[in-house]
Amino acid sequence: MNTDLHAPLGQNRKPGGKRPGVLRMGRVVAGLCLVLIGGFSLYTAFLGDGLKPTKPPEQQASAVPTDTVQKPATPVAEPPGGMPRSDPQSGANVERMTTGDGSVVTKYSPKTRDGNGPVLVDAMQVGQDPRMAALPNDALLEETPLGRLPIVGPDGRRPMDQYARPWSGAHGTRVAIVVSGLGLSQTGTKRAIQQLPEEVTLAFAASGNSLQRWMQDARRSGHEILIQVPFEPFDYPANDPGPDTLLTSKSVAKNIESLHRSMAEITNYTGIMNYQGGRFLSDPNAMEPVMRDIGKRGLLFLDDGTSAQSKTAAVAKGTEVPYAFADVQLDSQLDFNAITNKLDELERVAKRNGQAIGVASAFDESIDAISKWTEEAAMRGIEIVGVSALTNDPKKP
Fold first, then answer.
1. Among the listed ranges 121-125, 224-228, 376-380, which one has the minimum average pLDDT value?
2. Full domain range(s) for residue 110
3. Do 142 and 256 reside in the same domain of the chain?
4. Nearest one of 168, 162, 227, 183 to 201, comparing CA atoms
5. Which run of H or of E encompasses 178?
6. Contact present, 178 and 226 (Cβ < 8 Å)
7. Are 72 and 155 in a shared domain?
8. Does a structural domain hold residue 41?
């Protein structure tokens, strides 16, 4: 067959085709591309990387980035043990540089600090981590011959603020329940810590046993805690609250020493609660120096409300000490139903006044009744709070 289909490729082309012209045109285009690429390369080489300072070339050697923020260095405290603490709110160095095309490049870098080695970030300055609630804030303690005593921190933070149980801040009905006498009975103390809701405040008797261990267990369980200090009752010495009881017959120095011995038994408490003390609480001259020392150390005072002759309110106001009074004694009759009725009375007081405080001892009947009642109270719109939330505090509006 004599068709173009079987002819060798390129041998049937007519004279005068366009192939040579196409080749010449391709070479011209390729040459122009090379020229353009070379010119662009030379242009970018002379232009630089675009991050040149905005100041003239003669000032580039001494130029600094524009809009550079340098915050003052934060002083580094030196706590016991030699490891410096760093302020968690100290921030970083921030540098901003304007590029050739008007863009802004921001650079963050850590601040320099004095000294070598690791730094411990002092998270306690911005609030105690609940996971660390069993450990005290060393900045709120002072070493004394009697032991470690609470003090107000260098930044003004008080122990009653550091160790207070958080609450919602709502303006609803609030109730605080304080269960006292912990440490006097090992089984009763263990049962109270394990079974009472964490919203219940626990008060440890200074004369109790294994207080440091029980305190740590209570704090890990979420409880706000108090320390109970023995005060002189009307029928003393027939009724003796125990060693280091504060007495109206003692000198001021001796009573302050007894107070400090009780304070040093544990840490991490928000305040002091009386253990008995009808006679002592009714004597303003005996109470005034004691209350002044309590307030100076950033603590609250809770009066259990058992003495009608107590002068706590007047003395506390005169010395600007945060204080509170118990409204209802919950277990004066040791019976589950009777205690439940008292809890209902506490609720009525709280609804009438907006808040109320009830106190009880760590008896089995009290623990059972309080545990059941608090579960049901939440469904009735009652918020159980730590006792510090219901304190008359002159430093708060």
1. 121-125
2. 65-123
3. yes
4. 227
5. strand 173-182
6. yes
7. no
8. no
pLDDT in tens, 265-279: 999 999 999 999 999
Query: What is the rounded distance in angstroms from the CA atom of residue 323 to the CA atom of residue 58?
Result: 70
Residue 18: inside a domain: no
Cα distances (angstroms) measured from residue 381 to each of 156, 171, 224, 350? 35, 11, 21, 11
Cα four-point dihedral sign 56, 61, 65, 68? negative
pLDDT digits (tens, 9 = 90+) for 228-244: 999 999 999 999 999 99
Q: Are residues 209 and 93 in the same domain?
A: no
Pairing of strands 328-329, 323-325: unpaired
Q: Are residues 100 and 158 in the same domain?
A: no
Give the residue among 382, 308, 393, 379 at the shortest CA–CA distance from 346: 382
221 and 305 belong to one structural domain = yes
C-alpha angle 378-178-347 in degrees, rounded to nearest 5? 40
Residue with tokens 């603490």: 85
Helix, strand, or coil (residue 278): helix
Query: Are residue 275 and residue 344 in the same domain, yes or no?
Result: yes
222 and 304: one domain? yes
242-246: which pairs have CB atoms within 8 A and are 24 or more residues apart?
Answer: 242/206, 242/207, 242/275, 243/207, 244/206, 244/207, 246/277, 246/280, 246/286, 246/290
Beta carbons within 8 Å of 242's beta carbon, 6+ residues apart = 206, 207, 230, 275
